[in-house]
Each structure stands twice: as structure tokens, then as C-alpha cells.
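From the shared-data thread, chain only:
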Amino acid sequence: MMNTLRVLALLLVAAPLAGPAQQLKPNEIPTNLPGVTTVLAPPEGFDPIAASDEDLAYYGFPPRPDRTLDEEQFQHWAKAMKASKKRIIPTLKEGPRAFGPARLHQNLKSKADDTTQWTADTWSGYIHVDDVKKYGKSSMWYVMSDFIVPVANQAFNECTGNTDIAGSWVGIDGYDSVGLLQSGIEYDAYCNGGATSTNYAVWYEWFPNNQVYVTNFPISPGDDFLVEVWNSSATQGYAYIVNYTAGFATEVSFSAPAGYGIIGDSADWIIEAPGGRTLTNYIAEPFFYASAATFSGKKVDPGDSIQIIQVDAQGNPISFPTLLGTKAFLMQDEGSAYQPQQ
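Structure, as C-alpha cells:
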């Protein structure tokens, strides 16, 4: 069985193609949502660092960075796998909204464009764009990053009676396409008549479907998270989430909405206010060890990507990133949380 899985994994890396729905592995179990599965924890003593690629896939671990090309990212991946002390079987709940594609103020056509900074209605962060026309060897395979969960606030000196919403996520596609594979964290702030409340959650999504919350996964302000998404075909995606602080991890396997898929032409590291909502005043949030890779082995990171600044209807900055290195950046907001354009 292991030999068969090894051949299958190699074929997927060499020539990723859409195919029939994958059959469940012996250690793969359905979740409470139809069509979504998870993988049970590996046996005691299993070492993901020394394991083969086939065994990593079998036990639900995310792709291993090629240490010959990026030793730093490999060591960070190893740290995340070691921190996955307890595997949570996720309890899932469909959310009321979607974190969707970018609404850029210009139509970015190709990485050949010289522009390195863009403005958008709902996104801020970095996008790496390649001139990929269809799903294949040049498509994005995986995207990952660490976040520190921020404290959710409403705009300074305001109490609107509405909930401000924000999500920090990593994803594949979405800058100029409809299909978008993504996963991340959400942090919301509510204030009414002086009474305040906050909400924090972990989620994944394949747009245009709504987000899906992992309701039993621990998350609190200040927690250190790793989130990674990857794919094995244009319509089969995965998310792996680690809370370093609490020592928990989870994995989900899910399919694209009917009639949709990914091209794999962009890698995204984003903070977003979902369309029509005001952005949570998160003040500052670091992204670090942010990277991505294509099936052909090309490595990319925010350092060679396009900066995205979220602006309000008057063009004033709401949320913006600042590079701290090729794989790290700091997200900051202006504290305004203005309503984005409709």
C-alpha cells in the first residue's frame, strides 16, 4: 500500500491533474460536513521530520519544503510539525459569509507588469503572481505563513452597533479569478451602547463557497499560528493549522465547489475585510516564515511579490504591509476601519 501511495504522490508532483474524487485512506475519516475529511493522528513515535513524502501525505501532514533550496523554511516547517502535539478531529460549521477574491483598483494582467504596489477595496498584504494560464506543473502547490492572533477592536472612539470583521489568511488564486483556496483566522469586534464583545475563530474556504469554521480549535489573542494550504489537483485542496501556543493541530481535505477550481497562478498572504463589511481595528499583526512553492519546485515569498494596500472610498489607507525581510512583514491599520467600497 505504501508503494502505491508513493507512486501516486510522485505522479501528482510531476504532473498535477484534476481527477476523480480520491478514495479514503484507512486512517482518513469523514467529518460532520459531507465531502470533508480529516486524518487521524499518526502512531506514537512517528517522526514527521524523517518520514518519507508518502508517509507524510498518508498521515495528513503538509508538503515538506525542499531543504536544498530553502534550509530556513525547512527548519520552520520542522518546528511546526514538532509542535503538532495533539491532532484535533475538527467539528465544522458553515459560516455566514465568504472571504473572497481581491477587488483591485487596477486589473493586474501579468507578472511582467512593473507595478509592485496595488490598492484594493478588501485586501491588504502581498500577492505573488505568475503568468500561468491553466492548471499544471507551473501552478502553485502550497502556501504557508505564521500569524500572531491580534486583539480585535472597533475603530478608535467609535461604537457603531455593528460588528467589524477581519481575517488573516493564506491562499492560492483570487487576484484575477473566481476560484480561491484559502485558510486562516478571524477576529471580530462588536460595540453597542458601550457594551463590547469579540470573536475569534479558525476557518478554511474554497470560494465561492462560504467559509467553514473549525469550532473546536483553540484560538486566543497572542497565540502563534501556522496555516498552510495545498492542493493535489485543480479541485482537491487541503488545510493544515497549528496553534503553537496551545500545542494543537488539525487537517482537513475538501473539494472545490461544483464547476470551480484553481489555476494556481498566485500565492496570497492577506488580511481581508469581507465585501461590504468594515475592517476590524487590529492595530498590528506580524506574518513571518511566509512562503510558497509551485509543483515544478519554484520558491516564492512576499519579498518578490506585489504589495496590496486596502483603501477606503476616498483612497485613504486602511490596512497596509511593511516588509521585515523576504519572508516576513508587519501588517498595520490606521485605526479608521472605514467602510470599503461596495
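The chain has one domain: 92-333.
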